[in-house]
Fold this sequence. Notes:
By secondary structure, the chain is mainly alpha-helical. It contains 14 helices and five strands. Helix content is 49%, strand content 4%. Helix 9 (217-226) crosses helix 10. The protein starts with 7 loop residues before the first strand and ends with a helix.
Amino acid sequence: MDKIQKSVGRGCINILGDVKLIQQMLNNAICSLQLDESGNLNQNTIAAIDYFQKFYLGIKPDGRISPSGPTFTALELKYQNSNCKVFSIALPASSNGVKLTNSDFDKAAKKLGCEEACIRAVTDVESKGGGFFSSGKPKILFEAHIFSKKTFHAFDKRYPDISSSKWNKALYLGGEAEYSRLEKAMTINRQAALESTSWGLFQIMGFNYSASGFSSIEDYTQAMFESEGKQLLAFVNFISKVGLTKYLKSKDWKSFARAYNGPKYQENKYDTKLEIAYKKYDNKKIAVLK
Length: 290
């Protein structure tokens, strides 16, 4: 196996022959990549180095490969054993969309220490007809710009439909068709794909799995498939973790809307919708529901 003479990558000397060899080795190691093997260093090559270092070596990426460093050694080993890394696209079994119960709302309100009407209000505004499609799969939206960021933009050129440096509304397929985009991304990198997807009643992004009370993205995904109750619990954990509980307790809808929905919340009248929904649920009405 040939060796590189000098370091390749971010801020390095980048001899043409060295860069070409690294591009060939990266293409061999990451089958979904397909870098241009011209020997000219570009952002795609640096992104691929970052990606390999994080997901194949498990180290903090620096975008640099030295002749005797661990990244080159790992690429050599991959070259000797050229089997591609295969990611599973299997997802948890459908639970037929188990719906929220009165008990779920009661537990959520007690855990946050707020009125149950507040929980029901947010659920009304966020749920848009429930947390599951008719098939029993949880509702999702795959975010190509998040996937691009999490994979260091290494796949933007080859897979622009699922990996984009900028948010692009036109990429959404909508509805259950979003699963085809998710599965395509999962073949490239399962973890990054699941983390780049928003899930269920409250469309909490997968990368927030820890703040939502889960030890891994796989555990989070499993919960999203199980029931709307699990989706509500994830929401409760999340807003508690990020400090939004106080806004629900005080019914400060503007502050909650700004923090949860973003600075452009007024364009969708998110705070107004929350207030209107809250007024639907006073104690007497909740008692009737129960």
